[in-house]
């Protein structure tokens, strides 16, 4: 029979996401969650101690009695199984990490517990895309493209307009669309490529150069502006470099002040657990919600496929009936 701690650990196996604050290393986030999960699992009520039968002397027995020593059978707990002797049932819980975020970035960080690590590997083989919000500023360039880097250049930005910004963004999108088609493993003139593009699944298999699948300016008030990015195989340093290149294309300089991941595959900011909710109970609830959402999506896809199949069968039946009517009409004309 499984102990309460084992049953709780089984319910914790799966995927969930947390909100990583800026200025905190992802290893510290993972270690904190591992510690909280370990405390929560080991804090469950322990099973009652097993008992064994021992023969004990009767306290009322007198050694001087002629009958000798009298013994009685008694069930006593096995102290070698006591938690104070054996220690905690779980000594370590491994928490896997998905796509990493560097220390200065914030946002959605996907984690996995137990068997969820295999699911995490399968999930990121399916060309999962990520979305970011980049807070940027014109007029300054640094050696590492971040706000905290050493300033290497300052420039003016009064000549920059939203129209010029949109033209540069369109140019970058066109260049990345070419890279997306080049690194895709399907023929661009095939039906498969069209269907993948419609579903948003067109992309490289495995590792490739970073590719921006979407880029737009959602806020423009010089010197500050905000970009929304959808990408594949990116790093946060690459995204900061993109901001730097946009500044150069606009005959100025620009630096990225903040990188926030808003979506990672199926996980969004609404699913992310904040620091005060990195407990075993909240993680268990988040994993259960992800499982139920996954099952509901799978069920809706099944119903859609059935509806398409039923529609196709009905269309085929109607066409067969029309063909039969045509053959009957032709036979009647020939007979007349």
TrEMBL record:
<feature type="domain" description="Pseudouridine synthase II N-terminal">
    <location>
        <begin position="91"/>
        <end position="236"/>
    </location>
</feature>
<dbReference type="Pfam" id="PF01509">
    <property type="entry name" value="TruB_N"/>
</dbReference>
<dbReference type="InterPro" id="IPR020103">
    <property type="entry name" value="PsdUridine_synth_cat_dom_sf"/>
</dbReference>
<dbReference type="InterPro" id="IPR039048">
    <property type="entry name" value="Trub2"/>
</dbReference>
<protein>
    <recommendedName>
        <fullName>Pseudouridine synthase II N-terminal domain-containing protein</fullName>
    </recommendedName>
</protein>
<dbReference type="InterPro" id="IPR002501">
    <property type="entry name" value="PsdUridine_synth_N"/>
</dbReference>
<comment type="similarity">
    <text>Belongs to the pseudouridine synthase TruB family.</text>
</comment>
